[in-house]
């Protein structure tokens, strides 16, 4: 009887949690789109409807780019997770989009790690989180490498006024963090975790070079797709910047990616960074905010809506006895 009650209670709490996540996600999306700020959703609709270049074909093409963006993200996750468990594309889709919805209100998508791990047996969850870290690190690595190249070109060409105090603080924090990690690896308490560390090293060695190469390739394809999507939106809004646009876009993604944020407010951060960067190129603020909002709706709001279905369909994995 106690086991039955415990099971029923667990299932009831799981249903409440799933409903809570979906309701919270929809509330944050609604709040972000319709809050009374400097740039309201009504302004976005007014600007979009005033450009005849934003046709049905253009919208379909933009949706196709968003589909490809998340298709390669799902392929990346399927490739990584197959190191420990065979999953279908449908399962990888449910895990990727479901985790996206569940992590909307967490800083820097940190909830994505726990959400994906919940799809697997407890003894596999540490490995799942580590695989997720590899995937996110590959994406961040591509963003950083191409972003630094763009940032250097952008700085040399436009000579923007930089907040060197902020850069110094950020660099200092990064150095302290890296130093702390090095100290942790060399500290005495780490010796007690040597067995776990050896298991991690062994697991890393089981990940093939082919898997790593495919992960980096999928990350690069995603970057190229959403960067081109941003560029295409600029052209739809009659912003013609040619080469300078790609340099500015890569700089924007670099700067916005290193700023800690709650994922649902990612549009605010990218909007602020984009307004400053493209302002130096003479692009009006309303147009840039419209592009950023459009990107946010296409690549995060719509996938999150689809992901809410997968959240509601989520079931805890059966425990292997």
UniProtKB/TrEMBL annotation:
Transmembrane segments: 12-30, 50-72, 133-158, 164-190, 211-233, 287-312
Cellular compartments per GO CC: plasma membrane
InterPro entries: L-PG_synthase/AglD
Keyword entries, A-Z: Cell membrane, Membrane, Transmembrane, Transmembrane helix
Top-rank taxon, per record: Bacteria
Membrane topology field: Multi-pass membrane protein
Subcellular localization: Cell membrane
Name of protein: Lysylphosphatidylglycerol synthase-like protein
Organism of origin: Gelidibacter algens
Origin organism lineage: Bacteria, Pseudomonadati, Bacteroidota, Flavobacteriia, Flavobacteriales
